[in-house]
Amino acid sequence: MPFAGKQDKLTVTSYSVLTMILYIAEKPSLGRAIAAVLPKPHKNGDGFIELGNGDVVSWCIGHLLEPAEPEDYNSAFKKWQFEHLPIVPELWQLKARSSSAKQLSVLKKLIKQADLLVHAGDPDREGQLLVDEVFAYCGVKGDKLKQSKRLLINDLNPAAILRALQNQKSNHDFVPLATSALARSRADWLYGLNMTRAYTLQGQKAGFQGVLSVGRVQTPVLGLVVRRDHEIANFISRPFYQVLAHLQLTETDIRPQFSAKWLPSAACEPYQDEEGRVLHPGLANKVARSITAQPALVTKLEQKNKKQYAPLPYNLSALQIDAAKKYGMASQQVLDLTQQLYERYQLVTYPRSDCRYLPKEQLSAVPTISRALSSHNHQLAQMVAQADFSLVSKAWDDKEVGAHHAIIPTEKTVDASRLSTDLLKIYGLIARQYLLQFFPPYCYGETTVELNISGGLFRTIAKTEQQQGWKQWFGKHSEATTATQNAAEHTQNAGERQNAESEQLLPPLTIGQQLFCARGEVIEKNTQPPEHFTDATLLAAMTGISRFVEDPAIKKILRDTDGLGTEATRAGIIELLFKRGFLQRQGKQILATATGKSLIAALPQSATKPDMTAQWEAALLKISQKELSYQAFMQPLLLTLHDLIRNAKHAKPEGLPTDLKPKWQKRTSRRAVASTAADAGHEPVTVKPGRYKKRPQTTTDKNQ
Questions:
Q1: Which stretches of 264-392 are assigned E, i.e. beta strand?
Q2: Can 427 be counted among the known catalytic residues?
Q3: Is 528 or 676 the better-scoring residue by pLDDT?
Q4: For residue 151, with 0-12 CB atoms within 10 Å meaning exposed, 13-18 middle and 19 or more buried, which class applies?
Q5: Strand-pair partners of 226
Q6: Contact, 483 vs 311, CB < 8 A?
Q7: Which entry of 350, 357, 427, 434 is annotated as an active-site residue?
Q8: Is 108 exposed, middle or buried (0-12, 13-18, 19+ CB in 10 A)?
């Protein structure tokens, strides 16, 4: 059924023998990429592309629909009042976003005319809902709905899109995934809107003139920063003492060969802190004196050859962490740059991926990808020349790949001069991480030696590099630390850092060999507070949030669900906390503001910790796997919400700034703010027409 007439009109010429297929992409760039591999000639319409065979490609512009505002259900809800809370819609409504109403109208007509619908939203939970809710809003039902197809695209290059077109699935198979996304959206609306109104109203009683927004994800992230700041502010440094034994092969050696550190026995526990550090200088000095000029017996000698394989290709969080460490880039900046590389230049695959693995079928693209990389710059050309493409790393694992795979380079080449410096940096990281899969492991020997000196236990560990392997491509040894290792390193406490054993070269030794301790030495150190969060460490904490949880069941859920927030929302959540005035920067450090600290102090602990998010994500996963119903998730949530609102009525926020003045603020696009707000777990922003608006901090309007 080809289109005829003016391009902005959807007049259809009827062909009884033909079937019109309508492809609906999540955004125009994806729609154009799909159309590029389909029959030509093309006719560009207003919001769609007509193909040579009569099929049509159209698109959403992000979410075309949004949840109705409280006042859409009841005009009285426009004014924020405690007696209205909690606001719980009896029948949920969606409404067209004013900024994209025209495109929704285009889609509505096309959907009515189409014989077969192909859902080409992004390959994730939210992408599934985004197009499915348009189907529902436009009244698609019956056979037309059951016969609709799902097109999953991770790579905007023509060859990859053609492969995806040949492997379409039934969209009906993704109903549970869409249901879980719908449950998440509504639960976040209920929790964020009602808790934000409740605590803003309580803040007003304390003289605060702004909005205290609360969200399922944003508030636990703020809680992390507030608790870290509190720990640092209240930290009292204490001296502690280590004892080193300086060892020689014989008493007549001119100088010591190596040193070993004392490991206190259980009898010393009264003189140690909870992390095993010796706090009593007298004990340390006594041990040092007792081992000086004494024989030392080798009681344990363990030698192991170890391998460290190349880090996996990036998911978004791992890329953001490494870019923050290497280039000082903020999380949102990295996401924006990667999105450009994906949409505008088609140089990388889908950027919002939470996966670090690749499907085995992707191995067939290795030759063309490597050729593209070799033409990009000298370093990548060197890597390609030295790579062993017969190696198949553990990155290729079909069982680990879900809706999307890791972020990797595509087969496309672009003149490097067309890319900005920052784009080149991000592309270089992604390309290098991919090529590392074709290099051998880093190999080293590790020797552990334990000695008995005057009845005390001493230990040293030495490492010897045997083969650089993939680490040869890193300028510094420390830079070769993977993003996963970074996360652990950033959250390592000060005691663990200070107790880390130094690496040294050892002479040939045997068990039972007697050495000589030339002298004992007491090293005085001071306990150090944890470090303030930075972009890299806060993102690492969000992805590895289980380390901040004590409950074993919650800890396991958070490990299995990959942390706090999603790959698509983490950067936006951090930025939102800055925009809300809850976080501030001091150089590279991220600290909580007085407002942020006051909000966390006023909220119940359950709202400031990640436990609730873990429980929600576990339930949402079960919905997507058809193990839990929508109602079984929502009903307990509503009971909890009523309890939270009752408790909020007695909350008394303290320490809030009361001298904020109204300010003029340039308008932010509705789509960008609403999307971030929804991701963060509270209601979207309403923006009225006009270029600027006066935004007084005194209002309780949710737009803030």
A1: 294-308
A2: no
A3: 528
A4: buried
A5: none
A6: yes
A7: 350
A8: middle
pLDDT at position 692: 29
pLDDT digits (tens, 9 = 90+) for 49-93: 999 999 999 999 989 999 999 999 999 999 999 999 999 999 999
Residues 6+ apart with CB under 8 A from 286: none
Does an H or E element contain 158, and which? helix 158-165
**Strand-pair partners of 525:** 240
Domains delineated in the chain: 3-167 (3.40.50.140), 203-233+544-695 (1.10.460.10), 240-309+448-526 (2.70.20.10), 316-438 (1.10.290.10)
- Quote the radius of gyration of the chain (alpha carbons, Å): 30
Name the residue among 501, 444, 449, 498 with its Cα closest to residue 247.
449
Percentage of the residues of the chain whose pLDDT score is greater than 70: 86
Q: What angle do CA 452, 453, 458 make, to 5 degrees?
A: 60
Among 12-26, 214-228, 520-534, which is the least confidently predicted range? 12-26
Task: Among 241-255, 272-286, 491-505, 688-702, name the one with the lowest average pLDDT.
Answer: 688-702
DSSP secondary structure string for all residues of 414-464: --GGGS-HHHHHHHHHHHHHHHGGGSPPEEEEEEEEEEEETTEEEEEEEEE
* Count of all residues that appear for the chain in the document: 704
Give residues with Cβ within 8 angstroms of 197, minimum separation 6: 80, 84, 85, 87, 700, 702
| Cβ-contact 491, 541 below 8 angstroms | yes
- In angstroms, the CA 110 to CA 144 distance is 13
Nearest Cα to Cα of residue 580 among 652, 689, 685, 653: 685
B/e letters for 500-531, b = 16+ CB within 10 Å, e = fewer, are: eeeeeebeebeeebebbbbbbebeeeebeebe
Q: How far apart are CA 407 and CA 436, in angstroms?
A: 14
pLDDT at 489: 40
**DSSP state for residue 399 in the 8-state scheme:** G
Q: Are 683 and 189 in contact (CB under 8 A)?
A: yes
Q: What is the dihedral of CA 340, 343, 344, 345, to 10 degrees?
A: 90
Contact residues for 512 (Cβ-Cβ < 8 A; gap 6+): 297, 298
Give the pLDDT of residue 19.
85
Q: What is the DSSP letter of 364?
A: G
Mean pLDDT along residues 605-631: 91
CA–CA gap between residue 82 and residue 201 (Å, rounded): 7
Query: What digits encode the pLDDT tens for the residues 94-151?
Result: 999 999 999 999 999 999 999 999 999 988 888 999 999 999 999 999 999 999 999 9
DSSP state string for 460-486: EEEEEEEE-GGGGG-SSGGGG--HHHH
Sorted by sequence, the CB contacts under 8 Å of residue 451 that are 6+ apart come out as 245, 247, 260, 296, 297, 298, 299, 457, 458, 459, 515
